[in-house]
User: Which sequence fits this backbone?
């Protein structure tokens, strides 16, 4: 599983996101109970596959704290997980080198965790916690 712009905690997101997003999130999610029930951070026990996360450190829509929270929770659960953070990137990467690195690391990540796949290009893989 690969994620960019990942929401871990909907309640926290409601409080941290910028004004535009904060005004309609309640309509998308529902009542306070739904915010808790639908937050991935509260359902980590249901995760069963490796996860790689990519996060822009200047993201105002889904702040870096969201990626860090789910990364830590998945790592503690013992699942293979990796987190890549990009300086000077927001919600959606714009720098060509970061887009390329993200695509390359996705490919290498899946080849490694799924096995039986070879990556032809010379790409140095990032560290995957609970895997390497």
Assistant:
């Amino acid at each position: 599983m690969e994620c960019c712009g990942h929401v871990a905690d909907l309640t926290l997101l409601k409080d941290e996101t910028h004004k535009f997003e904060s005004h309609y999130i309640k309509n998308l999610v529902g009542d306070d109970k739904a915010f808790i029930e639908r937050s991935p951070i509260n359902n980590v026990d249901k995760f069963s596959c490796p996860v790689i996360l990519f996060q822009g450190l200047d993201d105002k829509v889904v702040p870096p704290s969201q990626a860090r929270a789910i990364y830590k929770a998945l790592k503690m659960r013992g699942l293979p997980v990796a987190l890549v953070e990009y300086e000077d990137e927001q919600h959606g990467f714009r720098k060509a080198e970061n887009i390329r690195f993200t695509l390359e690391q996705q490919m290498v990540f899946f080849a490694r965790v799924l096995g039986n796949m070879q990556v032809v290009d010379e790409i140095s893989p990032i560290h995957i916690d609970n895997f390497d």
Remarks:
- The two ends are 17 Å apart (CA to CA).
- Strands lie at 2-4, 51-56, 81-86.
- Residues 96-114 form the longest helix (19 residues).
- Helices lie at 10-16, 19-29, 32-37, 64-77, 96-114.
